[in-house]
Design a protein that fits this description.
Number of helices: 3
Strand content: under 5%
Distance between the termini: 93 Å
């Protein structure tokens, strides 16, 4: 019986040490959340953007629009210099 009592005290001591470690981890997480700004919706937005598919026609339109923006910038640069 003495062994069981000692084992129970050891287990409770280990549980207390684990609880203190969890408290320290919670504090560290809280500090990081304040620094970074915890925004749980940001991750879901990233995931949904990865799964989004764009049609070939839309990609062509996007490509033409970007090429027009680049041409405009090149033209503005040539006229300044």
């Amino acid at each position: 019986m003495a062994n069981l009592g000692r084992m129970l005290r050891q287990l409770r001591g280990e549980r207390n040490r684990a609880q203190k470690e969890l408290d320290r981890l919670d504090e560290a997480i809280a500090v990081f959340e304040k620094l970074v700004g915890a925004n749980p919706r940001a991750q879901t937005r990233v995931r949904s953007a990865v799964n989004r598919k764009v049609s070939a026609a839309t990609r062509r339109k996007m490509s033409k629009a970007q090429k027009a923006r680049w041409a405009k910038l090149r033209q503005q640069g040539a006229s300044k210099g």
